Each structure stands twice: as C-alpha cells, then as structure tokens.
C-alpha cells in the first residue's frame, strides 16, 4: 500500500527515528557539571560585599545563581581542602592527603571510597580536570609534579591536564611569574609583580586556553554528559598578574583592615611563613602600611585576573549552548588573611582563613541572584551535585545536599567544622569554637562587635562543652 508516494516502511522508519531521538534526548538531558576552583580566593568579590573589587564575571555568575555568603572550607590549606571537595569526606590535614589516599588504593585489603569524579564517571560522565584541581596542578607527583606513574587521584579522570607553556613543568607553573619565571629560591622571587602583556604571560592564561579547548571538545564531539573541573592558580602567591589588572585599581580606595593586631593569648596565629619567605625588599606589611596596601592592591589585581579567566570559560560554555544543561559551581579552596590578626596568608583557624566564596547555578533555578547566610561547608558540594544531577548520592559522602537552600535561600544551614594538625574548630550561625589538641578552647561570639578578637570561653563553659561534643562527634 502507498500513501501518495510514501510506503508504509517510511512510517516505520520515521517511528524508529522518533523513538531513538526521544531516547537520545532523555540521555542528553542528564546535566553537565562545571566546577571552577580558584586558589586562595577569599570572598574578595563585589558579589560578596567587597565593593572596590572588579570581579564582573564571577558577579554575573552570582546574579544567575545563589551565592553562599557563609561557606566555610574544612581545612585552611590547599591539599586537605581539595581532598574534602573531591572525596566528600573529612580527611588528613596535610597537603599530601590525596597522595596518601592514592597510596592506600594500592593495598588490596584497604577500602577506599570512590572520589566525586570517579562516582560521576561511573554514572556515565566524561571526567576532565584542567589546571589546579587537586593539590598538584595536573594531578601528578614526582620532583616536578609531572610523573605519570604517581597519580594523585587514580581512576578519577578520563583526562587530567596541566599546560605548562614556558614554565617547563607543573611545579614551575604553580609558583610562576611572567614569561616563564619559576621559583627556585623563594627569597629570590618577588612577592608581587605586574608586567605589561596579555593574559598568557602568566600561567593561568595557558590553563584557561586549555579549559576552553576541552569544553569545546566535550560539547562538540562527546555525546556523554561531562564533569569538567577547572583550577585557576591565582590569586595564589606570588601575586603576579598583567599590569592592566593592577591599573583597574588606580585611584581606588581600599577598605579598612579589620582587627589588624596580633591576638593575645593562645590562638592559631602564625607568623605568615609562606608569605614572608618571598622577596619583600626588606619590608613587613605589619609595620609598613604603604607596603601593606601595595600587597592588597596586587592581591586585588590577581582576583581580577582570575575573574577574567572564569569569564572566558563561562563564555565558551554559553557559546556552545551547553549552558542550558550545565550545573556550574564556583568554589574558593580557602580564605586568605590580608592583615587581619596580623596574618598574611591562610593556615589559621580564624574566619579569614576558612571563609571562601561558593556560588551554585543550575538551569531552571528559581532564586537567581539570591544571597544566603546559611552556614554550609565544602563537604556539602558532593551530595549537592548528586542531588541536582538526579543521581544517587553514595553512602560514604559525609555532607548534606544544599538543594533545599538553593530552592529556598532563607533556609537555615548547619554548623561547619575545620581542622589543622593540632587544632579543630566548629562554626555555628553565632559562634566559633576552636579546640586545641591540649584541650584549650577559644570561643568567639559573632553576634558581638568583637567577634574573633575576644575569647569568651571562660564565661561560657556550658557552650564550650556542648560545641566540643559536637565537634568531636563530627570528627569520629
């Protein structure tokens, strides 16, 4: 039988194409994941209240998503903080946390839970990392961080990439300055620098170019959903960025540094060793206010430089059309003191070391541009992404999904904890309590003007005991 010039077989073929097309549409509707990790980024962004900062691209993402104003990392150092992000578990406090996990994976008798990228790979995702996602940019060990026999996260990535351009190797790029300058002796490398040129004169230019290339490949030639993590190095020390970014701050006033004095009594204060070992031309920012301002301007320039790199990746995501089906997370791996408590760096258990930006956007979200004051922690990102992607959250993920806060930003959060090798801390909506390994406690009331400058532990022993129990229970 014919209908006009069309045979019945046409309808059979058409029905088959429609059916398979619907199936492919259902498969492709599993959302992509894009995680943007920015190193040493405190919430020094306009969307987080720093009005003097130029951060238009991250602010635009915040205007499309939800900005968590009180997100806290689980360790004030790159390695252990990224361990928590990538495993969804509390872990060791040292920078080798992920390498130690990798070593454990070699033991057949050891049970090592799947990492977040490994879990998403099992759910059908193509997993790619570019730049500094785990502690070592590119995710390899060895002298120059490029030994392919020493993998920081085995089984995690389909591709883990670190373009080094003229910096020779990932270790060189990690602390690189303009035009291939690498750190040999810290004291011979300037703590900040501003050179004429484009974005590619510093290492993040190459990282961003590779990220855009990978995104184009994933959205053009890969029919699976992607899990892409991009790690921007700046504003990590040394503070190097093209001069055009420093020029943005000509004539711009800096806000007052809150509580710049060294704290009295026992705290997690330190002498800023990471910062102080660089060439500072004999100057100390705790004694020289003009030099302190120079440091802060160069940090701001690095934030703006990192912001531009984020913008390039997001522009490619939009150009590809994949933005309509991609969950985007921007995450700072910890905070950074810019003179508060007379510290220049991270590694303390004060607010400035532990608070970092977290922005989440997903297609179809209702509360775009919302800001939430819910207390949350990095540990929550793994279950949140599972929840938003519609896949099972593994039982070993220790955090909680933030989807209820994303859908109702006024929802309350939960306490956040963090740790170093010799102390741990718990942050509630009103207090921070830090417990040293010898049992000494610091208690700070964030509802007062003094905040983390006045230890009120002796006045509130019951609260110290309550928070100590909560903290220890979480870390068991």
TrEMBL record:
<dbReference type="InterPro" id="IPR035874">
    <property type="entry name" value="IDS"/>
</dbReference>
<protein>
    <submittedName>
        <fullName>Iduronate-2-sulfatase</fullName>
    </submittedName>
</protein>
<keyword id="KW-0479">Metal-binding</keyword>
<keyword id="KW-0378">Hydrolase</keyword>
<dbReference type="GO" id="GO:0046872">
    <property type="term" value="F:metal ion binding"/>
</dbReference>
<dbReference type="InterPro" id="IPR017850">
    <property type="entry name" value="Alkaline_phosphatase_core_sf"/>
</dbReference>
<dbReference type="GO" id="GO:0005737">
    <property type="term" value="C:cytoplasm"/>
</dbReference>
<dbReference type="InterPro" id="IPR000917">
    <property type="entry name" value="Sulfatase_N"/>
</dbReference>
<keyword id="KW-0106">Calcium</keyword>
<keyword id="KW-0732">Signal</keyword>
<feature type="domain" description="Sulfatase N-terminal">
    <location>
        <begin position="31"/>
        <end position="391"/>
    </location>
</feature>
<comment type="similarity">
    <text>Belongs to the sulfatase family.</text>
</comment>
<dbReference type="InterPro" id="IPR024607">
    <property type="entry name" value="Sulfatase_CS"/>
</dbReference>
<dbReference type="Pfam" id="PF00884">
    <property type="entry name" value="Sulfatase"/>
</dbReference>
<dbReference type="GO" id="GO:0004423">
    <property type="term" value="F:iduronate-2-sulfatase activity"/>
</dbReference>
């Amino acid at each position: 039988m014919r209908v006009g010039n069309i045979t019945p077989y046409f309808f059979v073929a058409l029905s088959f194409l429609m059916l398979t097309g619907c199936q492919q549409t259902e498969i492709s509707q599993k959302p992509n994941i894009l995680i943007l990790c920015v190193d040493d980024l405190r919430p020094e962004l306009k969307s987080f209240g720093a009005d003097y900062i130029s951060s238009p691209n991250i602010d635009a993402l915040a205007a499309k998503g939800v900005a968590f104003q009180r997100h806290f990392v689980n360790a004030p150092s790159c390695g252990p903080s990224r361990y928590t992000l990538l495993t969804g578990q509390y872990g060791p406090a040292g920078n080798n946390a992920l390498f130690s996990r990798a070593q454990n994976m070699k033991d057949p008798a050891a049970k090592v839970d799947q990492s977040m990228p490994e879990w998403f790979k099992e759910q059908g995702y193509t997993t790619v990392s570019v730049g500094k996602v785990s502690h070592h940019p590119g995710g390899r060990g060895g002298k120059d961080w490029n030994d392919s026999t020493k993998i920081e996260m085995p089984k995690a990535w389909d591709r883990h990439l670190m373009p080094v351009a003229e910096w020779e190797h990932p270790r060189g790029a990690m602390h690189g300055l303009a035009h291939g300058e690498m750190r040999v002796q810290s004291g011979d490398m300037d703590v900040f620098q501003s050179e004429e040129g484009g974005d590619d004169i510093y290492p993040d230019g190459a990282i961003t170019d590779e990220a855009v290339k990978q995104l184009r490949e994933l959205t053009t030639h890969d029919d699976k959903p992607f899990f892409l993590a991009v790690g921007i190095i700046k504003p990590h020390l040394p503070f190097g960025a093209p001069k055009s970014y420093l020029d943005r701050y000509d004539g711009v006033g800096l806000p007052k540094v809150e509580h710049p004095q060294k704290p009295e009594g026992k705290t997690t204060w330190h002498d800023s060793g990471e910062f102080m070992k660089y060439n500072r031309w004999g100057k100390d920012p705790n004694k020289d206010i003009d030099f302190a301002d120079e440091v802060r301007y160069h940090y701001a320039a690095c934030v703006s430089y990192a912001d531009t790199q984020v913008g390039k990746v997001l522009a490619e995501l939009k150009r590809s059309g994949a933005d309509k089906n991609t969950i985007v997370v921007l995450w700072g791996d910890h905070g950074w003191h810019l003179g508060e408590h007379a510290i220049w760096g991270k590694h303390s258990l004060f607010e400035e070391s532990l608070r970092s930006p977290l922005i989440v956007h997903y297609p179809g979200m209702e509360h775009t541009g919302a800001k939430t004051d819910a207390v949350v922690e990095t540990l929550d990102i793994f279950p949140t992404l599972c929840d938003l992607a519609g896949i099972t959250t593994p039982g070993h993920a220790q955090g909680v999904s933030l989807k209820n806060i994303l859908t109702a930003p006024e929802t309350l959060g939960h306490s956040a904890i963090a740790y170093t090798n010799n102390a741990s801390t718990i942050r509630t909506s009103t207090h921070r309590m830090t417990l040293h390994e010898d049992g000494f406690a610091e208690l700070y009331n964030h509802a007062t003007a003094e905040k983390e400058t006045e230890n009120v532990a002796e006045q509130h022993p019951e609260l110290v005991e309550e928070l100590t129990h909560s903290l220890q229970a979480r870390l068991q």
